Target: Putative serine protease PepD
Amino acid sequence: MTDGWDWRQPGGTPAPAGPPAGATPVGPPTAPHGAPGGTTSPWWSDALADPWRDPYAPAAVLIPGAPDAGAGPEPVSDPDAPGRPKLRQLLLVPLITALLAGSLGGALGYAFAVRGGAGGGVALGARPAEAPGLAQRRPESLAGVAEKVLPSVVTVRVSSLGGVSEGSGFIVSADGHVITNDHVVSGATGRASVVFNDGSTAPATVVGQDPESDIAVIKVSRTGLRPVEFGDSDALAVGDPVLAIGSPLSLANTVTAGIVSALDRTMQAGEPGGPVRYYAAIQTDAAVNHGNSGGPLVDSAGRVIGVNSTIKSLVAEGQEAGNIGLAFAIPINQAKRITQDIIGTGKARRTVIGAQVGGAGTVTGGAGVRLAAVEPSGPAAGAGLKAGDVILKLNGRPMTEPTDLIALVRKFAPGSVVTVEYRRGSARQNTSVTLAADAK
Model:
């Protein structure tokens, strides 16, 4: 059977069995496994590696026998022989794979480092703990309290002859009543308006004002509002945490934190030509500035315990003042009572003790407040007090200035019973006084 190649010598003589002339045999010229004798096989042992072989020609794979004893070392195959994978090719594949894997790993590492905020490939600082979502913040946290109160706080704008007066306020009824300061709406010549926490606006009208307590009530033309929750200003203690909320310097929805710095701090305030305001204020170090006036001071449960009203400053009269950590709020028990009076009757009742203080008989040295006159049928006279008596304490609160007695008396509602410690001559005595509303 022919293999497709003519191996005959010129002239028709068949070529001898074996490889063509000039071909180098590979492997020992031994017979195939099982062939008798040691004659050379008529088949090429490396036929499968011969690049010139007819692919359709038969081939035999020879399995060499065990080497003869004393035989020389087996010849080493040439790694670069035709048809065999070269060693450099075998090494090149894993090398390229390693380089690609390293490049990919480096690129991913750099991307994760940049995404994690590291600069220059170096991670700085510890891995931050997972921050809680807004919905997970505890209601008693500062953020939880602010979230609760802010929807009930408004910015109050009133047109006046001097321009637009702006302050803060807070909703106290679902049908739109808002508490603010009297000095925010005083001098109004037109309708007021409020800006809600979500930025929407609504017109408002002034229901009533009490200049002496610096409380005013306005009514918003909107229903279904969310009123604040009231706290108890008489239950406060120095050091209690508080938040002041409002629109200082027209920055709406501003929240500042502090503590109750003092209680029953006598405040005497008023604008030139206007009434003098007296109240026993809550002092706080929460940042309060112009525009905070009328906004709520709330406790750690989000309950309103005061109405932010005034600040102390080191600037000269007439200059713009800023926060120095001395702010004052009207106690909410007093503000709530006055608001109910204004809504119910259009005006507030003023609490009195039925005596006049100061004058020529004023006590020096801060050892009490001398009564200059006592109304014959007033509360003080009914309790046995006389002109010339020195009031030392009212409900345990020491009196050092005439304004102390005025401010503290107005803190209580008409009909309240207070204890009075006084000195008549050299004797100290105590009595109870039932406070009354001014007849005016």
About this structure: The domain at 240-344 is CATH 2.40.10.10 (Thrombin, subunit H). Confidence is low (pLDDT under 50) at residues 1-5, 7-13, 26-39. The radius of gyration is 51 Å. Residues 208 and 345 are 9 Å apart (CA to CA).
